[in-house]
């Protein structure tokens, strides 16, 4: 398959189980660093640079296998996966929504490192059976690097895969994903600081060797990347904890409900009777909501035309995820998730309609009200 450029993600090089796989232009930077750093160390002259280039391609393969493990596991567990991207920082898999349970999150997280373990075993086997020096060297490098990647990724702190295992464990025990993210985020900060200190300070002291500049730069860059990821996880975790503590009833506003045969004047009358209502919804003869009334357009109509205009003339479809089933005493997390959306198939809403499990309409919740409630907390 010929590669095709994507203006957003890089070069499309293929698909895994239908999932597009891209290589970002920034990957060339890490490839160049590998070639220039390891080429002279191989001791084969010009050939050493070719060996280093082959090693860079093997590392790319390792990244793609790792991310494919995440993607295939998520797809097998019913999730949606948008794409796999290899870039300067290694790679990442873009999911179409958040994992819905601790078990799913843990299985998806561990699948990536397991792919690296499989490659490490393959490399070890190759190094034991290949007699030619260069293929044997590359097979050994494949084994060593993938074992290292698997171990590193399983360190128990976000944004590493091991951090997602910590998050899933705390989530499963406490019932709060937000608390899981907080614990795993702080663990990620501690691990980042510990690894950076070991590589930049402790190891050089133990070996009585000064760290080279390239190593220090990479430790700094990777440490900054991990610290930023851990910090972002802590921030999201705090928000999740606040959302989980809120009740749906705290965010509900009354909504004007009109049948499909009602006039626009009926909607206006309802809004006058219930001034605190933030929205009006049209229902079919069975009581099923079919959409919102566009109040902005309705407000622009002459008053004399309202009685003769059907409410459905101002109907706006709610879109995917606009109906949320919840009780007033439930955590607001489900409602806030519906407002926020989860990707291209559900881009989020400015307002959602909340019904109880029996289908009775309880009211509406707006993104503006939810954000204001979070600020007050």
* Helix run count: 13
Largest sheet report: 5 strands, mixed
Rg calc = 27 Å
Domain module tally? 2
Helix content, binned percent? 55-70%
Quote the beta fraction: 15-25%
Distance between the termini: 53 Å
Question: If you average the pLDDT, what whole number results?
Answer: 90
Q: What is the approximate shape?
A: elongated
Protein described:
The chain has 377 residues and is an alpha/beta fold. The protein has 2 domains: 4-245, no CATH class; 248-376, CBS-domain, CATH 3.10.580. It has helices at 27-38, 46-76, 102-129, 133-153, 161-174, 177-207, 213-245, 248-251, 264-273, 295-299, 303-306, 333-340, 367-376, and strands spanning 4-6, 10-16, 19-23, 81-87, 90-95, 255-259, 279-283, 289-293, 315-316, 323-325, 351-355, 361-366. The strands form 3 sheets. The protein has a 5-stranded mixed beta sheet with strand order 1-2-3-4-5. Helix 1 (27-38) runs antiparallel to helix 2 (46-76), helix 3 (102-129) packs antiparallel against helix 4 and helix 5 (161-174) packs antiparallel against helix 6. The chain is elongated, with a radius of gyration of 27 Å. It starts with a strand and ends with a helix. Mean pLDDT is 90; it is low at 1-6.
How would you sum up this structure in a few lines?
This protein has 377 residues and is of the alpha/beta class.
Task: Itemize the secondary structure elements and their pairings.
Layout: E1 4-6, E2 10-16, E3 19-23, H1 27-38, H2 46-76, E4 81-87, E5 90-95, H3 102-129, H4 133-153, H5 161-174, H6 177-207, H7 213-245, H8 248-251, E6 255-259, H9 264-273, E7 279-283, E8 289-293, H10 295-299, H11 303-306, E9 315-316, E10 323-325, H12 333-340, E11 351-355, E12 361-366, H13 367-376
Parallel strand pairs: 3-4, 6-7, 10-11
Antiparallel strand pairs: 1-2, 2-3, 4-5, 7-8, 8-9, 11-12
